[in-house]
Amino acid sequence: MESKIHEFFIAKKRVISKAELSFVFLFCITGLFPNFVSSQTITDIDGNVYNTITIGTQVWTKENLKVTHYRNGDQIPNVTDIVQWCSLTSGAYCSYDNDSANAAVYGILYNWYAVNDSRSLAPAGWHVPTYSDLDSLQIYLGYDLVAGGKLKEVGTSHWMSPNTGASNESEFTALPGGQRTDSFYSCMFSEITTQGYWWSSTEMDTTYPWGINISYNSEGMTNWAASKKQAGFSIRLIKDLSVGIHNIDEYEYFDIYPNPARDRIVIAGANNMEMTIAIYSLLGELLMKQNLENSKNAIDISALSTGMYMIKLTGNGWSVQRKLNKE
User: Using 50, 70 and 90 to split pLDDT, how confident is the model at 32?
Assistant: First the structure.
């Protein structure tokens, strides 16, 4: 492990901060040492080719989605009219300002109904990320305050100055495609070059889905659930887990609540899945480990000090990491 840490920071050619040291110890302990590897390309049903990048255990497309047909070949409606867009309850897409030149650079904007359509926007073996997928990415990159900078394209060719904290260390190359706002803001085009918004496939409630936001003036990555399903956001795709590894969607199989928490958390899982919960400090110190065998389990965390922790849930051939805010 010491060799890994040494090689990592020799490559960076700079002084190690305490925060970075904590970051590296955390990922060495949990088996998630930073791993950014360019991978193969994928092609959608329209023939658009996307480069991919491996970030930890996940494989992502490096460009925003541009597909105009569902996986089965059905056309996705291209809706340009504001009034029509605001009234939609089914899948649709548009280019920013209805200009195909913007789509060529920043990809297409889709409403969430297209994300949720059973015909699928993604080629076989790929999917629109769940909240859990995005949360795992955020955790892997060092949590919300710095993850955005590691995802953003560097420079100001596409991002407005100052493009704070942009290093593109992950090679994800996030671009500021802006958005088409929901009906509260009259379904207008907004914020190209300053903001990027990406959908997840997970709903926060029946009105608001989850997504993420990255900004030109911050290095953070914000979990976003302030736009209705009719809003138009960019989409990145993530590869399904390999054969033999269960594809765990946190909201289908289990939930952790409350979070933030004071005295206890509850792990609620479906199908009586057996799993192990481990709680780590941000220095990678194992603080608690417990087997979970029932469909609902209460975990006493009253002995933990106030602060951020790493939760790792492990089952038969899978593991998922989550952050815990102890109040």
Answer: very low
- Name the residue ranges covered by the structural domains of the chain: 2-34, 38-239, 250-326
| Type of residue at 66 | K
Instruction: Report domain 250-326's class.
Output: mainly beta
Which of 78-87, 141-150, 265-274, 279-288 bottoms out in mean pLDDT, i.e. has the lowest? 265-274
Structure tokens at 30: 């949990």
Place 5 in a pLDDT band, splitting at 50, 70 and 90. very low
CA dihedral sign, ordered 196, 325, 225, 65: positive
Burial class (CB within 10 angstroms; exposed 0-12, middle 13-18, buried 19+) of 310: buried
Distance CA 211, CA 198 (A): 5
- The DSSP code sequence of 237-285 is -EEPPPTTS----HHHHEEEESSSBSSEEEEEESTT--EEEEEE-TT--
Rounded to two decimals, what is the model's pTM? 0.68
The 10s digit of each residue's pLDDT in 236-294 is: 999 987 533 344 444 345 667 788 888 988 876 544 567 788 898 877 788 999 887 65
CA angle 273, 59, 242 (to 5 degrees): 45
Residue 69's Cβ-count burial label (10 Å; 0-12, 13-18, 19+) is: middle
The span from the CA of 158 to the CA of 150, in Å, is 16
Sequence-distant (≥ 6) Cβ neighbours of residue 286 within 8 angstroms = 29, 278, 279, 280
**What does the H/E/C string look like for 59-71?**
EEECCCCCCCECC
Q: Are 171 and 62 in contact (CB under 8 A)?
A: yes
DSSP string, 25-44: HHHHHTT----EEEEEEEE-
Plot region of 269 (φ>0 → left; ψ -120 to 50 → alpha; else → beta)? beta
